[in-house]
Amino acid sequence: MDIEAVPGTGPAAGAADGERAAPVEWTVVESAVGPLFLAATGRGLVRVEFHADAVRREQMLDRLGSRLGAEPVERASGLLAEPIRRLERYFAGAPDALDLPLDWSLTSGFNRQVLRELAAGVPYGTVVGYGELARRVGQPGAAQAVGAAMGSNPLPVVVPCHRVVESDGGLGGFGGGLETKRRLLELEGVLPAPLF
Q1: For the chain, what is the total number of helices (H) and then of strands (E)?
Q2: Do residues 173 and 147 make contact, with C-beta atoms less than 8 angstroms apart?
Q3: Which residues of the chain are in CATH 3.30.160 domains?
Q4: What is the CB-side half-sphere exposure of residue 23 using CA atoms within 13 A?
Q5: EC class of this enzyme (predicted)?
Q6: Catalytic residue status for 26
Q7: How far apart are CA 95 and CA 127, in angstroms?
Q8: Can you give the pLDDT of all 196 residues of the chain as single tens digits?
Q9: What span, in angstroms and rounded, lies between the C-alpha atoms of 180 and 192?
Q10: Which position among 161, 164, 184, 187 bears the catalytic label?
Q11: What is the largest CA-CA distance in the chain?
Q12: Quick check: 17 and 67 in contact, CB under 8 A?
């Protein structure tokens, strides 16, 4: 499926914190799971958001501006050209497409540790339980905290929180909605595609 930029309404003002802020570029692209909001800094992709309608887009711009200390600039080229190309390949079924530089500045502590393990240790076409992911980061018994980390993931799809499932085989929760999670797992061959 082709991913193409969707025109936006312009960025919201960002807040400065006294430090020189890195430029932030953003766009919205169409995908097999609906419009995705993408933002990147010079360090890498920093934010992905599902269901990027006008209201959600403005919320993301406000949050990014205040958290990163720079006014996001709408641009589908430059910093976002490679992430857009890789997402297009991912939605076309390329298992290695999302190996991208990431800017982890919107997460920290335990959440960052869990998300980094998820990104590095749960490949395309596989799933992991919340408890197993907790064990992998040295915190057995922290399955609920892993669930909270998944809910705070600033980079869904690229940091594949859709691959984290319940130990009994249930899908578990998902910030993008269970239908989106199901579609991503179908794309990766974990779940069978619907017949109709």
Answers
A1: 6, 7
A2: yes
A3: 5-91
A4: 9
A5: transferase
A6: no
A7: 14
A8: 444 444 333 333 333 344 456 689 999 999 999 999 999 999 999 999 999 999 999 999 999 999 999 899 999 889 999 999 999 999 999 888 899 999 999 999 999 999 999 999 999 999 999 999 999 999 999 999 999 999 999 999 999 999 999 887 778 888 888 999 999 999 999 988 775 5
A9: 14
A10: 161
A11: 56
A12: no
Amino acid 41 reads T
* 158 residue type, one letter: V
Give the right CATH number for 109-187 from 1.10.340.30, 1.10.10.10, 3.40.50.150, 1.10.1740.10.
1.10.10.10
Confirm if 83 and 45 have CB atoms less than 8 A apart: yes
Q: Which residue has the tokens 């909001």?
A: 37
| Residue corresponding to tokens 């360090």 | 43
